[in-house]
DNA sequence: TGAATAAAGTTTCGATGCGAAACTTTGAGT
DNA sequence: ACTCAAAGTTTCGCATCGAAACTTTATTCA
């Protein structure tokens, strides 16, 4: 019981520091933390997940709020919006070079990256596993989407070295697509 | 290298989920995440750390912004402000019963507490240690205050079962004070 | 086929966050 | 006594944020 309270405090501090550093980084570009979150997401999501609705789920905000944040990024020249050819209700978002640069420079924040690179791979491996199970636990409890990498999804079927099959969309896709975030990402099993 | 990227992603998700749940919890009281952070802090800080300036450092915001957030909490009846008798520039903040209740109910967020109670103490022990070292690493790198518990401070000298001595203020204090957050908290050593 | 319904996004409203900078009051140092 | 620093407050301008009303386009189902 004692550990749990301490861990809550630690995560609270990490969460606040994380956000403060992101805020500081965005300030020089006139951006708020939520904008950097959007740039970060668009820089890593796959082609099924680049819509305002997906961004809304990622942020956990309302669609009205998300719409305005995206509009701001568009007017600042960091994001481009393009209408879907088949479903005219849908828009696809992509980063401009300037937007991609800001995302790459600031997300994740420098101090976090620096702190982690000071650790060896064997040191961080158990941490990764524990954070993973904690995250899965919270996501299922709050029934929020997992936004995991495509290749870790239950619908991802490896075919060979250069391609895989997505059981959800029924498409053959090149392997490097598997490294991207998918809004439809589904956990392989709830209890393992 | 691979683990580090993944851990960054995991912390990003945890951070966002954390904040979203806090936002949701605060919404029913008309409070923003930052207000719950303040209530959380005031509920756990010691008597040297209950000032607007300390809250400012905890939040990592400017003093103007912090001042307005505190004023709002005051008008809503969750916080009381009282001028220091010796230094009239300083004000001391305390929670009303309503404020204390909201803090206790919502911080840390329910899903996080629930996820952690599903784990045994032996499971979470290594996680705690790793998060601690990660946090210390980031705090020293960004030269931000640690806001740790009094009893983990280098100036905390245990005397007996009911009291300790604070080398910083030169005061004898009851043991239970050691469980509170201190703005002057100083890490015992940087490399151990 | 046609009407109801749902889904994706936008717009408007009002309260507030947020940084920056100017300001007041009070204490500390020389 | 004079200067400087520290703690807080106030004002300004822009943006977030949720809620709710709205438009446009798809889908469902009768």
Describe the protein in words.
The structure is a homodimer of 192-residue chains. Chain A is mainly α and 192 residues long. Chain A has a domain at 125-192. Helix content of chain A is 51%, strand content 11%. Chain A has helices spanning 2-27, 33-44, 52-59, 63-75, 97-106, 110-117, 121-141; strands at 79-83, 91-95, 156-158, 163-166, 171-174. In chain A, strands 3-4-5 form a 3-stranded antiparallel sheet, with no helix packed on it. A two-stranded antiparallel sheet of chain A has the order 1-2. In chain A, strand 1 (79-83) and strand 2 form a beta hairpin. In chain A, helix 2 packs across helix 5 (97-106) and helix 3 (52-59) crosses helix 4. The longest helix of chain A is centred in the first third of the chain and has 26 residues, at 2-27. At the A-B interface, helix 1, helix 6 and helix 7 of A face helix 1, helix 6 and helix 7 of B. Chain A binds a DNA duplex (30 and 30 nucleotides) through residues 23, 27, 30, 32, 34, 51-53, 61-72, 87-91. Chains A, B: It comes from Shewanella salipaludis. Chains A, B: This is Winged helix-turn-helix transcriptional regulator.
Order of helices and strands of chain A: HHHHEEHHHEEE
Poorly predicted tracts of residues of chain A: none
Structural class of chain A: mainly alpha
Indicate the percent of residues in helices of chain A. Answer: 40-55%
- Strand runs of chain A, count: 5
- Assign an overall shape of chain A: globular
Radius of gyration of chain A: 18 Å
**Assembly category:** homodimer
């Amino acid at each position: 019981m004692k550990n749990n309270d301490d861990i809550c405090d630690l995560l609270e501090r990490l969460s606040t520091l994380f956000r403060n550093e992101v805020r500081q980084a965005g300030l020089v570009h006139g951006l708020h933390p939520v904008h950097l979150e959007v740039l970060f997401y668009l820089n890593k999501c796959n082609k099924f997940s680049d819509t305002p609705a997906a961004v809304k789920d990622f942020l956990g905000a309302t669609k009205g709020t998300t719409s305005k944040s995206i509009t701001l990024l568009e007017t600042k020249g960091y994001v481009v919006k393009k209408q879907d050819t088949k479903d005219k209700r849908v828009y696809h978002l992509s980063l401009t070079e300037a937007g991609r640069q800001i995302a790459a420079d600031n997300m994740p924040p420098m101090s976090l990256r620096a702190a982690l690179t000071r650790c060896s791979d064997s040191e961080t491996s158990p941490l990764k596993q524990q954070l993973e199970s904690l995250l899965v636990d919270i996501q299922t409890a709050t029934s929020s989407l997992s936004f995991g990498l495509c290749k870790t999804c239950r619908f991802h079927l490896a075919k060979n070295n250069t391609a895989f099959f997505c059981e959800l969309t029924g498409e053959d896709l090149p392997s490097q697509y598997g490294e991207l975030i998918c809004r439809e990402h589904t956990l392989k099993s709830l209890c393992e």
